[in-house]
Specification:
Number of helices: 1
Oligomer: single chain
Distance between the termini: 44 Å
CATH architecture: Beta Barrel
Structural class: mainly beta
Shape: globular
Strand content: over 45%
Radius of gyration: 20 Å
CATH superfamily: AttH-like domain
Helix content: under 10%
Largest sheet: 13 strands, antiparallel
């Protein structure tokens, strides 16, 4: 039987799905604790350079291009969209092309709608054109794809751009426009993750105007709102005593934006970090002592195959120096992705201490048994 290139790609994706299952799902967070020996290491003092660093860094073990968007339809109802492309190197050996490539790709897409939460995942191998991120230079556009899912810019940077993907029978087309400057998280993009010095290179674009539509059969829903891009790469994601993380990106009604993450440690002394971004785009790094974060309610969430997990679904977040605090709760609980690496990712609502609506955002919870 003659196999077409597309079918070969699908078969490769299926086999890689099995590989990710063996490597990641069986141990979940254990694979992210790999020491990264032999790969390029994250060190302080590196200067991030754009547009070059929008592209791939295959000498590091893992990286991602992570977009979330808080949107509304013509009736004012809340929607959410997530699109993530992951690259992982299977070995620190020199990068080769074709079927000898040691690069593998995984992508997740999810839609939070008024009717429910829907998601899809894809896998691909590097070197054969099925997935990748083209080199970015001053004379070439940004182009990231896996199969027919694609993010392609109109110029040398990542924006303005068109993003197209599908989730089941829903086709999504979004136009993305940056309305502010990039934010280099941590210290000039060097984002420390543990007392042992574990770190990543990490920047965000929290100022994205999003408009587009979702097609489902004969129904077309127009959407508009704001997005958040996270870009991160490293060679070790977790220390041996770390179990997973809780991450928040918030668009506040007064124009401020806030990113906070907590990496949970076995001794309870969790690692906290974040970025506080003013309406004029000026960013301030938040260290561990600048953030108080605690959950206020744990609930069971369905996780597929008639199973469930207990997750911290409501949170209290305080910025010490700013003397501001918020309550964070999900739009609805059932926003779990039962993917090869399972996690909760979805739309959250933000309230001030009096219960008044104060913003909207996204929350990610990983590593919960």
């Amino acid at each position: 039987m003659l196999l077409t290139g597309r079918l070969i790609g699908r078969l490769a994706g299926f086999m890689l799905g099995c590989l990710f299952t063996l490597v990641l799902q069986a141990q979940e967070m254990d694979a992210l604790r790999d020491s990264g020996i032999g790969y390029a290491q994250v060190t302080p003092g590196k200067i991030l350079t754009f547009p070059r660093d929008h592209g791939a860094h295959p000498d590091y073990r893992i990286e991602w291009w992570y977009l979330t968007a808080n949107l509304s339809d013509s009736d004012g109802r809340n929607w959410g969209l997530q699109w993530t492309l992951f690259r992982q190197s299977l070995s620190p050996a020199p990068i080769e092309t074709g079927w000898s490539s040691n690069q593998v790709w995984m992508a997740h897409a999810a839609i939070t709608t008024p009717e429910g939460h829907f998601y899809e995942q894809r896998f691909a191998r590097g070197g054969i054109g099925q997935a990748g991120v083209e080199n970015v230079s001053d004379s070439s556009p940004f182009n990231a794809w896996i199969d027919d899912w694609q993010w392609r810019s109109n110029g040398a940077g990542m924006f303005p751009a068109k993003l197209s993907f599908s989730v089941g029978d829903r086709d999504v087309i979004l136009l993305l426009e940056a309305t502010g400057e990039l934010v280099q998280n941590g210290i000039n993009g060097y984002s420390q993750k543990s007392e042992q010095g574990l770190a990543s290179y990490y920047y965000s674009q929290p100022h994205i105007r999003v408009r587009g539509f979702v097609n489902q059969g004969l129904n077309k829903t127009y959407l508009k709102g704001q997005g958040w891009l996270d870009r991160e790469w490293s060679s070790q994601s977790l220390a041996d005593n770390q179990m997973g993380w809780d991450w928040f990106s918030l668009h506040l009604n007064d124009g401020y934006k806030l990113m906070v993450y907590q990496i949970r440690q076995e001794d309870g002394k969790h690692w906290l970090s974040g970025s506080w971004i003013s309406p004029n785009g000026k960013s301030r790094h938040l260290g561990r002592g600048a953030i108080n974060l605690s959950f206020t309610d744990i609930r069971k969430v369905a996780t597929g195959d008639d199973k469930s997990r207990k997750l911290p679904m409501e949170w209290q977040l305080e910025l010490v120096e700013q003397k501001r605090s918020w309550r964070i709760k999900p739009l609805y609980d059932e926003q779990w992705l039962d993917t090869q690496v399972p996690y909760w990712e979805g739309v959250v609502l933000v309230e001030d201490e009096s219960g008044k609506p104060s913003g909207i955002g996204y929350m990610e919870l990983t590593g919960y048994e």
